[in-house]
Amino acid sequence: METRSITAQIPMTPRMTEDPAQLVPELAEVSAALFRAAGNGSVPRSTIGLVQLRAGQIAGSTYLTVLHTGFLRRAGEPEERITSVASWTDSPYFTAAERAALALVEAVLQPSATGERVPDELYAEVAGHYPAKALATLMFVIGQVNFFIPTALIAKPVPGRSFTDPWK
Q1: Which of 10, 33, 101, 144 is most deeply buried (CB count within 10 A of its CB)?
Q2: Residue 25, Cβ neighbours under 10 Å: how many?
Q3: Do residues 19 and 151 touch, judged by C-beta distance below 8 A?
Q4: CA distance 167 to 160
Q5: What's the CA angle centered on 62, arms 91 and 161, to 5 degrees?
């Protein structure tokens, strides 16, 4: 396998030129259900956006990072909050509930050196900020972004293009 230099130019074309959703239209219902679950109103939209942005960062996906950064900007989130998501643990811009949600997405998406990814203490912390429906919604929000991570990493849609048209 050939290794690419870190100074090489990255092409602004998708690796896969056909929209995977059009190739496998059966997944449209699953995708739509995940979007409805994420938007059920039990978790603030800003928290969902922050969690999705952090998931894209953890996955190492420029496409998802740019996409969710753009969504947060259009929703009116301050730049300080958006740019400090990557270093949220020492950022003063997040509420305790948002910090719990960010800790949860990190625990789910990153291996744990000490065993269980989501220990009882973290669960209790998150559950202390979010009632049962909101906690379930947070789980599905993490699942929703995880649903799209393989597409972002394998098909490599072009960052910054329209959410509905990254394949050209």
Answers
A1: 101
A2: 9
A3: no
A4: 11
A5: 120
pLDDT, tens digit (0-9, with 9 covering 90-100), for 81-108: 999 999 999 999 999 999 999 999 999 9
What span, in angstroms and rounded, lies between the C-alpha atoms of 15 and 155?
5
DSSP the chain: -PPPPTTSPPPSS-SS-S-HHHHSGGGHHHHHHHHHHHTSSSS-HHHHHHHHHHHHHHHT-HHHHHHHHHHHHHTT--HHHHHTGGGGGG-TTS-HHHHHHHHHHHHHHS--TTS-SS-HHHHHHHHHHS-HHHHHHHHHHHHHHHHHHHIIIII-PPTTS-TT-TT-
Question: Which residues, 6+ apart, have CB-to-CB distance to 113 below 8 Å?
Answer: none
Q: Could you give the CA distance from residue 126 to residue 98 in angstroms, rounded to a whole number?
A: 9
